[in-house]
UniProtKB/TrEMBL annotation:
Domain of life: Bacteria
One Pfam short name: DUF2065
Ranges that cross the membrane: 43-63
This protein's name: DUF2065 domain-containing protein
UniProt source species: Oceanidesulfovibrio marinus
Entry annotated with the keyword Transmembrane: yes
C-alpha cells in the first residue's frame, strides 16, 4: 500500500481553509468567542473536539463509501 502524498497535502490544505474561515468571516467576533471558549472547562473542550472528530469521520465514511 503506497501513501498518497497528493491526497494528504490536499486534505491538509482543506483543513487550513476550513480552520481559517471563522477568522476571516467573523474577525470582529472571534476575540469574544475565543475568550468564551477559554472560560470553559477542559472536559467541555474535549467533548467539542470529540464531536468534531466523530462528525468528520462520519462525513468521510459517507463520501468514501
Amino acid at each position: 500500500m503506497d501513501f498518497n502524498w497528493k491526497t494528504f497535502i490536499t486534505a491538509l490544505g482543506l483543513a487550513f481553509v476550513i480552520e481559517g474561515l471563522p477568522y476571516f468571516l467573523f474577525a470582529e467576533r472571534m476575540p469574544k468567542i475565543l475568550a468564551m471558549l477559554a472560560e470553559r472547562p477542559p472536559s467541555f473542550l474535549r467533548g467539542m473536539g470529540l464531536m468534531a472528530m466523530i462528525i468528520g469521520l462520519a462525513v468521510l465514511l459517507v463520501v468514501r463509501a
